[in-house]
Design a protein that fits this description.
three-stranded antiparallel sheet, mainly alpha, 20 helices
Length: about 525
C-alpha cells in the first residue's frame, strides 16, 4: 500500500551531496571500488522488442546521467527464463545505439561492475541470499504450489488481498534442516518488517509505505535458483554503485520493499525518481502488443531517432518548454528532473509527423544540414530501388536529390516518404502503356507532338514551376479539333511522367524530373503509340 505524506512536489534541485557513500559490497567479483558521481542504469527484461515506454526510461536515465557528467549503464534482467525472447537483448542494444543512447557500460561494452547479464550473476545472488539467511532476515520456504493456490483462493473468497501467510517463517532450525536433507523443493523468502517505510521520491515527493500490509514475505530466490526481480534489482544496483534509480511509475509501490532489503544488508539506498505513466491518446495504457509504439515499427516507417526522442520528451516534460524540438545534446543541457510532471503523460503519435517535418525544414536551411539530408536520401533510394528494376539505376545525383528535397519538404514527414510508391516515378521511369493514354484521349498524337515541341523549346534557365505552369496554361488556348479538353491533356501528361492518376501539380513534377527526363518520358509514350518523328 502506498501512502503520500506530501503529494505536492518537493521543489528543489537534485543535489549530489548524498549520491553515493563509499560502499563495500559482498559481491563475488571482489570489493566494489569507491566511486562518486551519478551512475544510473536502464535495466530492461529481454521479453520482447523495445517500445516507446522502454525507450523513454532509457532516454531519461541517459539525460540525467549526462547532464550531471555521470555514467549510463545497460543491465539485462533475464532472471525470468520462461519469458525470455532470444533476439530481445540484441534488439535492446541495437535500438539504444540507433537512438544514440549508447551505454558507458553493458553486456557488450563491459565494465568493472559486470557481468551485466543477470543470468551470469547467479553466484552473486546466492551469496547475498546466504547472508540474509545467516542474519535471520530470510528463511527457506517449503510450501507447495498447491498450498499457495489454496491460500489465494481462500483470500479471494473472503474478498481479501491474496498474500502468503508466512507459515515457514516459524519453522525450527531442525525442521528446516530435515527438509533440506530430504531434498524438498523450496524457495527463499525475505522477512518483511511490520513498520512503515518513508522515503522521498524525486518526482512524487515524500512517500510512506507499509509493504507487510499488502503482501506476505516475498520470494527472493526461486526453486530453480534464479532470483526474483526485486532481489536481483537491489543487489545489482548496490554492486554496480547505482546512485539514482529512474524508472516507470508502476514500480513506485515496490520501493518500500526494496528499501527494507537495503536496510537488511545495511546498505544506503540510491535515490529514486519514478516517471509518470505513459498513456495512449484515448487514455488507455501502452501495451507491447501495440505495433505503433514499437521502435522497430517506427524505424521502418522512416522516423529518425531524434524525432522519436523528441516525441518522448513532449510527454512528462523534464524541460521548461516541452514542445520545443531539440537535438540530443540540447536535451542533455536543458533536462531537469524538476520539470518532470506527476500526472500521467499522453503519447500523441500524431506529433511525430509534425516533428519529422520540422526537422527536415530546419536541416534544409543550412548547407551542412542539406548535405546530410541528401546523403540519407541517397542511401534510401539506393537501398529501396537499385535491386528492384532490371537494368535501371535510380537517379541519385546530388543536385537531383537536393532539388527533390527542396521542392517536397513541405509535403513530407520524413525522407522515407520520398521512396514510397507514391514517389516511385522520381527514381525509376514508370511502366506506362498506350492503351491507358488512348482511354483518356483516343487520338493523342497531335497533342503529344505539339507538347513535346513546346517543352523542348523551354530554356534550361527557365525550367521552374512558375514558367512551366505558364506553358501548361497556354494549352488552354488550343481550341483545334485535334486537341482535347485541358483536364484531359493534364491527365495524359501526368500519366506519361509518373504512371499515376494523381499527385503533385504537373508543373512541380516537371521541375523535379528536369527537362531531359521529361522529354525522354514523353517521347517514350509517344513511341509506344506507334509515332516516331517530333518535327
Amino acid at each position: 500500500m502506498l501512502f503520500m505524506i506530501n503529494v505536492c512536489r518537493i521543489h528543489r534541485r537534485v543535489t549530489l551531496s548524498r549520491i553515493l557513500d563509499a560502499r563495500t559490497s559482498h559481491c563475488k567479483y571482489g570489493t566494489v571500488a569507491q566511486t562518486s558521481g551519478v551512475r544510473v542504469r536502464f535495466a530492461p527484461s529481454p521479453t520482447g522488442h523495445i517500445h516507446l515506454g522502454g525507450l523513454r526510461t532509457a532516454l531519461y536515465n541517459y539525460l540525467f546521467a549526462k547532464s550531471h557528467g555521470g555514467q549510463f549503464l545497460l543491465r539485462i534482467e533475464d532472471t525470468d527464463q520462461s519469458r525470455f525472447v532470444p533476439d530481445a537483448m540484441k534488439n535492446i542494444e541495437d535500438t539504444l545505439n540507433w537512438a544514440n543512447l549508447t551505454p558507458d557500460e553493458g553486456p557488450t561494452q563491459g565494465g568493472k561492475y559486470g557481468p551485466y547479464l543477470q543470468s551470469e550473476r547467479l553466484p552473486i545472488y546466492k551469496e547475498h541470499a546466504d547472508i540474509l539467511l545467516k542474519n535471520g532476515k530470510a528463511y527457506h520456504c517449503f510450501c507447495s504450489q498447491q498450498r499457495l493456490s489454496l491460500l489465494r483462493k481462500a483470500a479471494i473468497r473472503k474478498k481479501e488481498t491474496p498474500k502468503y501467510d508466512n507459515r515457514c517463517r516459524h519453522l525450527t532450525p531442525q525442521e528446516i534442516q530435515d527438509k533440506l536433507d530430504q531434498g524438498v523443493s523450496h524457495v527463499i523468502r525475505f522477512k518483511l518488517d511490520e513498520g512503515a517505510v518513508t522515503f522521498e521520491d524525486l518526482v512524487y515527493g515524500l512517500i510512506q509505505q507499509r509493504p507487510a500490509l499488502v503482501e506476505g514475505d516475498p520470494v527472493i530466490i526461486k526453486a530453480d535458483g534464479f532470483p526474483v526481480y526485486h532481489f536481483a534489482n537491489v543487489v545489482d544496483d548496490h554492486c554496480m554503485q547505482i546512485s539514482h534509480v529512474l524508472r516507470g511509475w508502476e514500480w513506485l509501490t515496490s520501493v518500500g520493499k526494496h528499501i527494507q532489503l537495503y536496510n537488511a544488508f545495511r546498505w544506503t539506498p540510491p535515490q529514486f525518481a519514478h516517471l509518470p505513466l505513459l498513456l495512449n491518446k484515448d487514455g488507455t495504457k501502452l501495451s507491447k502488443r501495440q505495433n505503433d509504439i514499437s521502435v522497430d515499427y517506427l524505424k521502418v516507417k522512416g522516423y529518425s531517432p531524434n524525432s522519436i526522442l523528441n516525441l518522448i520528451t513532449f510527454c512528462g516534460a523534464g524541460f521548461e518548454d516541452n514542445r520545443k524540438i531539440r537535438t540530443l545534446s540540447q536535451m542533455v543541457n536543458e533536462f531537469s528532473l524538476d520539470g518532470v510532471t506527476q500526472h500521467s503523460a499522453v503519447l500523441d503519435m500524431e506529433m511525430l509527423d509534425y516533428i519529422g517535418q520540422q526537422e527536415i525544414l530546419k536541416a534544409s536551411q543550412s548547407t551542412e544540414g542539406m548535405e546530410k539530408l541528401v546523403r540519407q536520401l541517397q542511401q534510401l533510394v539506393t537501398e529501396t530501388y537499385r535491386e528492384r528494376k532490371q537494368g535501371q539505376d535510380p537517379k541519385i545525383a546530388d543536385d537531383y536529390l537536393h532539388k527533390i528535397i527542396e521542392i517536397r519538404k513541405l509535403h513530407i514527414k520524413n525522407l522515407h516518404d520520398l521512396v514510397s510508391n507514391k514517389y516511385r516515378y522520381l527514381w525509376i521511369a514508370p511502366n506506362t502503356n498506350a492503351e491507358t493514354v488512348k482511354e483518356i484521349i483516343p487520338q493523342p498524337d497531335p497533342f503529344l507532338k505539339y507538347f513535346i515541341k513546346l517543352v523542348s523549346e523551354v530554356p534550361e534557365k527557365d525550367w521552374d514551376q512558375t514558367n512551366l505552369a505558364s506553358q501548361l496554361k497556354s494549352l488552354k488556348q488550343k481550341k483545334d479539333a485535334d486537341f482535347p479538353s485541358f483536364p484531359k491533356m493534364m491527365k495524359v501528361i501526368r500519366y506519361s511522367l509518373t504512371g499515376q492518376k494523381e499527385g503533385p501539380a504537373v508543373a512541380e513534377i516537371m521541375e523535379m524530373l528536369m527537362k531531359e527526363e521529361v522529354l525522354d518520358r514523353l517521347i517514350r509514350i509517344r513511341n509506344n503509340l506507334g509515332f516516331r518523328d517530333v518535327s
